[in-house]
Design brief:
There is one protein chain. With about 230 residues, this protein is of the alpha+beta class. Helices cover about 40% and strands about 25% of the residues. The protein has three helices and nine strands. The protein has helices at about 130-135, 140-185, 190-229, and strands at about 5-10, 10-15, 25-30, 35-45, 50, 55-60, 65-70, 85-95, 115-125. The chain has a five-stranded mixed sheet, with no helix packed on it. It has a four-stranded antiparallel sheet with strand order 1-3-7-5, with no helix packed on it. It starts with 5 loop residues before the first strand and ends with a helix.
Length: about 230
């Protein structure tokens, strides 16, 4: 929107809407001429907003801040939409004019002054996150993470117990295997039946030994997977 006298920024009145709380936004008026420029602010809903200042003078090549405050609202508007509008009017004023000398008649048609007008709309936006919310995690994630850690801990304990049992069984089988080998060496001169029985016993213990070794490897691997979880 072009305005011969003032640059108005931003061109929307953006309010970070929150229930039951006053919210303010700022508009900046910059005089781009070498003249004194008087301005006046109007709105379609004057009871809902407070404008400070609502009228004044912007000195040549200077700027002024206008603060618009939205009164506390009891209800959230449908779809966060607002139909309120603002009108910024400005005219060239006499050199040395101050804010107290700005009158309503300066902006009327009867004054024959060149009145520049800029219309602005009101926009509601979501409020920025609070500092505590920025570093926090979603509740669902925290709950799932706690439950997952508890399950992983229980699994690790169970696998540790199985591993310890497998280690003890492995030691026992190793001792029995050593005893069988020692006894086999002493009985080499015995009958063929004793040799076959001794060989069968050694084979059974070797199978048990291999089973225990495999169980130990599987337990350790499952434990590593559980820890990664």
């Amino acid at each position: 929107m072009s305005n011969k006298f003032l640059n108005i920024y931003p061109l929307d009145l953006q309010f970070h809407f929150e229930l039951k709380k006053q919210i303010s936004c700022s508009q900046y008026l910059t005089n781009k001429t070498d003249n004194y420029v008087a301005f006046k602010v109007k709105t379609t809903n004057p009871k809902k907003y407070c404008v400070r200042p609502n009228a004044g003078v912007v000195l040549p090549r200077s700027s002024i801040e206008v603060v618009v405050t939205l009164q506390a609202q009891k209800e959230v508007p449908a779809d966060m939409q607002c139909k309120d509008k603002f009108l910024f009017q400005c005219v060239v004023a006499s050199p040395g004019t101050n804010a107290k000398e700005v009158t309503r008649e300066m902006f009327s048609k009867e004054s024959r002054n060149q009145v520049e007008e800029t219309k602005l709309r009101v926009v509601y936006v979501d409020p920025p996150p609070s500092p505590s919310e920025k570093g926090s995690l979603p509740r669902a994630f925290v709950s799932d993470n706690i439950n997952g850690n508890a399950s992983a801990s229980a699994l690790i304990r169970r696998l540790t117990e199985e591993k310890n049992s497998a280690v003890q069984l492995n030691k026992k089988l190793q001792q029995e295997l050593d005893q069988l080998r020692h006894g086999s060496n002493k009985s080499q001169s015995g009958c063929g039946i004793d040799k076959r029985q001794s060989g069968c016993g050694i084979l059974v213990h070797i199978k048990w030994y291999a089973f225990a070794r495999g169980l130990r490897r599987r337990t350790v691997k499952e434990r590593e997977v559980a820890i990664q979880i």
